[in-house]
Amino acid sequence: MPSKRSVLSGAPLAGALLFLAGFFVSPTQAQPAAPASAARCVACHGANGNSVIPTFPSLAGQPKVFLENHLVLIREGMRDIPAMKGQLDGLSDKELGALATYFSAQTPAAPRTTPQPETFERGKVIAKNMLCASCHESNYAGRDQMPRLAAQHETYLRDVMKQFRDHPAPGRDTVMSASLHGLKDADLADLAHYLAHLK
Length: 199
What we know:
The protein is an all-alpha fold. It folds into two domains: 33-104, Cytochrome Bc1 Complex, Chain D, domain 2 (Orthogonal Bundle), CATH 1.10.760; 117-196, Orthogonal Bundle (Cytochrome Bc1 Complex, Chain D, domain 2), CATH 1.10.760.10. It has ten helices and no strands. The longest helix has 18 residues, at 4-21. The termini are far apart. The model is unreliable at 1-28 (pLDDT under 50).
């Protein structure tokens, strides 16, 4: 029979092993199940949140906090997106949180088109000069309330940046409006092309 001391001295080791085991769960097991409300998102935002419609954003891999914030803003009418009218009506904060958790855990699709070298390089220079990575991270995967820009639809990115620049509105980030002020349409197109082709 082991001594009381030997049993107790093994407890921290056992606890540490159980703690570390949590880091080795397979990606399949770690994926949250799609909530029932996700079915209403698929038509526009695609299966698993990877949109195939250039004017609709992909939700896959977006930061959870960013998704939660914007889902609430849209539900409460503080962001006016005509295509989203009524889509979130009746969903609780818990249900919006489940949507955010699900889509943030999905793997973003790879860029869908081949980059144009000159356009890509121009966009890269603009992004560097504007310090875009200081908020959106060096890989443009986003963090917290800052959205993922990498591999997002080029058309969507260009259109949204124009909205930020030209039509500041409730629910939109005023910092982004100021950041894009003075950029020409051609600059936004180059920037969108660069970001859309990052993996």
